[in-house]
Amino acid sequence: MSEERVSSSPPARQPGVRIAGDHHAPHPAMSHAVGDLPDGEASGVSFRAAVLATMARYCRGGRVDVADHREVRSYDVDIDSSLSALLTLAATPGEPVPGTAEASVALLPVGTAPVTDAAIRVHTDGRQYVTTSPARLHGQVAVRHFSQAVRTFLDVFAAADGETLDRLPVAAVGILSADDTGAELALGRGEFLPQTEEQVHRTVVRLAAEAPDRPAIEDGDTRLTYRDLGIAVLATRDRMRAAGLAGRGTVAVAMERGAGSAVAQLAAFASECRVVLVDPALPAARIAYMLRDSEAGLVAVASDDDGVARTAASLGIAVLTPSPTPGVPDTHRTAAGLLEAAVSLPELSEDAVSHIAYTSGSTGAPKAVQLRHGPMRNTAAALGDACGLSSSSRGSWFCPPGVGMVEVDMFPVLAAGGTVVVAPPSISTDPTAVRSWLTDRSITHTLQTTAVAEQLLTMEWPAAPALVSMRVAGEKQRVWPAPDCPFQVLNVYGSTEANVVAVCDLTQLVRAGAGRSDLSPPIGRPVRNVNMYVLDEELRPMPRHSVGELCVSGRGLSRGYLHQDAANAERFLPNPIPEDDFPVLYRSGDLAWMDSTGLVNVIGRLDDEVKVAGYRVHPGAVEGQLSTIPGVAACAVVAAALGEGGSYLIAYVERASGPRGASLTGTDIREELERLLPAYMIPSTVRFLRLPLTRNGKVDRAALRDADTGRGGLDTEYRAPSSDAERLLVHLFTEILGRSLVGADDHFFELGGSSLSAAALVRKATDALGVELTMVDLMEAPTAARLARRIPAG
């Protein structure tokens, strides 16, 4: 806390932003920047605009609350807005926010000591940012960065002419000065360590000789020791070689998870072949596309007469049925023979492709990601260290076939010499069944998709379960573990393109008091040999606490997309970051920010960003707040299209068991969200149901959209207007909100109304009806029918 004393008789304050010890802008912005305003007033407006612009750049737009000692004013800012539009906004009084005024605002000009009463807040994407809060909360570095950024915008306002201000968006202005140091920026670098770990196919065959009776795979009634597994791998490798597959060949593995699939994949590595992961449940046309696109030379199947085998035969591709208990030469059955075979197995280069995994292809033809052996080995070592995997570990295998997550699921367990226990397909998406299976099978380590894990974390567990750690991956995690959670919960962040990027021990954070209900769990810091950066639109580093795109370099990256040069050029770039020796930078498409301790938080995806009532919204950010409401077991927020390019939000909620969940209503949820979010981020309606999951364990958002049979996301039954006043108001609702088939009983804010559109409605209704309506009228009577009753007859 600063020792500086505030005068007992401070100068009279004007509404708006103040600077410590000064009641004028710290920079004499020129009056031409804001039209014909006098120099003094223009300077103040320019300063307010600079604060709003800086907030927008820190948080990619949103609702900015600027407080003085008497009131708070809110401004909705978009980084796509031109600087001239921002100046116009800054010259208006903004929307008053009652009951939240605090001490007088003090924004630090460059070079002054920190003060303790800064109270500028930003609400965006469901999160409250306190960028210029006292140094004890965010540190002097964050305060200084913000102050410098304000000065940068003031310089731009002063130097630019009217034409430049009209065409220059807020996002185009950098907010860092040349003397910013790397320690103050959102730059995270993992520990650089040499790759000394053994590759997994060599480990398995070596353990076949050194620990032959140790259990390797339990798959229903099939039990394979490491000796059994090693022998099966070598026998299947020999069959692949006999079929002409060796040295950079391509083997498609189209089998359900289990012992046969593990044998086929390890045998392909032993043959120096790459594995194409194929879900046998996919349509035949999709499988045929994948086999042709990947140029598969052999297909491993569960049965010679299954559908995939017939598809392969139609393409002239040979099939192979791996056996967990094959007949093999005697030399492969002795310990000495197995050890000799292990030594002779190929050491694959870091750049060699391990798996080819196809994306879902929801936006067109699926893309094939080429994973590499180097990142696979790096991931196994990083997760082994984070989870404490060892030869005594019993790790589950829940990952469905066809996805690259297998490198995060069962392979790290085999690399540690542990036992892989295959989960039956029937339980994968049922959290209650998953908990029982984990307990009954004495599983010590498990990987769960976010949708399932979040429900597992709300359940009761035995006081001392065998479970040591739960890795959570697949989607953004929104639920913290309880302080008394009896096992370690690790938030594992990554993608098929970048493998595992970061790991965060959420249990440790909670027990240390760092878990916050108002913030989603962080993804943590980068793992070994991986770097993470938060960058702006021009790939410039952002300050800590500011939102930008998360980009990745290091040994975790894949070789990019197969036969997709344009996509590779867009996502895998020459690395522009100084002092980073890795040549490639991967753009993740995730929006993130880094706190003062180096922990990274992801708030949503760039491609999920939608416009609601003219503002940027990430449905995932709304989910983050929705998931904190007591009684919510799981949730999903889906954006649906409105006319003329707009969107509205629908919240799907699965109730938690118990009294809180049973009594939860849509009104309860909306009222709680209104306390947490600006109006335009409140879902138009709330639906209660059991969330459908895909085969991969993620929330099936397409199924949610298909299930929505309501009228544009509304629960109310349509009623046509019955009076002239109702008809006029319904017409205005329709015009202002861009909705179709609006009824007389439809709620203005559930239709997607915001504070700005509400102001427009009140103004137009007053002009059209010739009576004085106010915002209070609309808040108290938010339907056309109820508002019409406030209009005097005649």
Low-pLDDT windows of residues: 1-26, 99-119, 125-137
The percent of residues in helical segments reads 25-40%
**Multimeric organization:** single chain
Number of helices: 25
Provide a short characterization of the protein structure:
Among the domains are: 31-176, no CATH class; 609-702, GMP Synthetase, Chain A, domain 3 (2-Layer Sandwich); 724-788, ACP-like (Non-ribosomal Peptide Synthetase Peptidyl Carrier Protein, Chain A, Orthogonal Bundle), CATH 1.10.1200.10.
Descriptive notes:
The chain is an alpha/beta fold and 794 residues long. Among the domains are: 31-176, no CATH class; 609-702, 2-Layer Sandwich (GMP Synthetase, Chain A, domain 3), CATH 3.30.300; 724-788, Non-ribosomal Peptide Synthetase Peptidyl Carrier Protein, Chain A (Orthogonal Bundle). 32% of the residues lie in helices and 20% in strands. The strands form seven sheets. Strands 6, 22, 23, 24, 25 and 26 form a six-stranded antiparallel sheet that branches. A six-stranded mixed sheet has the order 12-11-9-10-13-14, sandwiched between helices. A five-stranded antiparallel sheet has the order 3-2-1-4-5. Helix 1 crosses helix 3 and helix 8 (284-294) crosses helix 9 (307-314). The protein is globular. The relative contact order is 0.08.
